[in-house]
Specification:
Length: 471
Amino acid sequence: MADRASKVVRQSKFRHVFGQAAKRDQCFDNIRITKSSWDSTFCAVNPKYLAVITEAAGGGAFLVLGLDKTGRVDRDAPLVVGHKAAVLDIQWCPHDDDIIASASEDCTVKVWQIPEGGLVTNLEEPVVNLVAHQRRVGLVVWHPTAQNILLSGGSDNKVIIWNVLAGETVQEIEVKDIPLSASWNFDGSRVVISCKDKIVRIIDPRSGSIMKEALLHEGTKPAQVVFMKNGNIFSTGFSKMSERQYALWDPNMKNITTQEIDNSNGIIFIFYDPDTNMIYLCGKGDSMIRYFEITDEQPYIHYLNMYQSPDPQRGIGFMPKRGVNVNICEISRFYKLHTKGLCEVISMTVPRKSELFQDDLYPDTTSDTPALTAEEWIEGKNATPVLMSLKDGYKPTHKSTSVSKLMPKAIDSISSTNSKKAAQENLNKEAELLEQIKTLKKTVNDQAAEIASLKERLAKFESDVEPAEEE
């Protein structure tokens, strides 16, 4: 009898994971969340800061708050305001918690350094300005293991791999339609990209060659894709009948399983935890977060539960594992944006009675130490992420080769396409200044000669007047 029960009820330590929203005073309120219709999460979070794309008149802006700055946000809170058009996507650097990249409708990608302690005044100058896209940029994704390597995708049907430190493009990859979603594999040697033409492509980011491509979901609405730790691909999209669905694919893009979810029309964002092999699905406009466990046993994707709340989500942020609270057995944390300006903190925990560190819930996780430099990765080296234990809590490592340390603030506007042009402009300005100085010197000399002539005439006039007065 016990054997039969064990076959019916699958054993999993994550079966009883539950979500708990923080009280309102421990959330972030009064945020002017962007009204953009672009399919983005509009939110990014790391163990130090929360970033939210905001509504801005005459340009693009996003808000950066320390995680301890909960409560009501001031209307005049300082913003990051360097873009000339709306910001569409933001992502924190996985190797430096002070560095964030932003993509915008102004066709640029900018990389910013948040000053220690957070923003006090508006931040207007980026550390690096990356210019190569011809149309709006809607996607930025940092490399998981190599420092200062960044992927961007734009409406010019290009995916560009950047060396941020040098401000140069490593590779420009032409795709047949707008890239909407991208994910690096575990060691950063491949990228999977879903495009507006419904085709999903696996790309070699160094050579730019398309290795495999396939139609994963037949619906016309955008698909989302994530590379899993074992090389499989998890996707969400729509069927021909516009039903939302999720699917699992092997490294050759052969289908392992596909399941329908419902008939809603919001795209579903995927948040993947490689440590627990759990997938969280958050639909835009939904009021729920579904979570699943991925295993090698049929049906491969095992539904666990869902977190429900009365309010729909406008956007959502996912905390990296090194930022969770291990003392309460928290395995993930979400920052849910409401339409009315609230950012709600939702904690996912596994109920445990013991107060000891739970080794089975927290295997060694990805740290903030890069495994490779940008140059090593460009030369062809691959490496899996450097791991760390969460037993003693997360402590940020000392940054020795990050953008913020090596990139002088004087070189704020490095660009792969306009660096030569800028240098030439500087030379032209210098020559113009020298010419102006010469002209000024000539004018001063001419005026000095004229003044001397006037003095001489005045003296002669005075000498002629004196004898006449004596007579």
